[in-house]
Amino acid sequence: MLEKYLAEFKDKKELYLRIKVRPGAAKSEVKEILEDETIKIAISAPPEKGKANEELIRFLAKTFDVNKNNVKIISGKSEKVKLVKIIS
Hints:
- Helix content is 27%, strand content 34%.
- By secondary structure, it is an alpha+beta fold.
- It is globular, with a radius of gyration of 12 Å.
């Protein structure tokens, strides 16, 4: 589902993603991509004490094959919709 974004990341070495998070899911996975290109991701961590953000960073780092330090939440740390930057 993220092939387009993976190819763009490989090309540009930097990517900004708008992500809508649903914490407390059974497993972390991409659910859908909305018309405005917001990516809906279910996260297996609860929305408390930054656990969902940590799991989102771990999930994206694994998906894009980068170090967790290369994934930053730019805005929306306490919101469901977040702007995330990934660099290689």
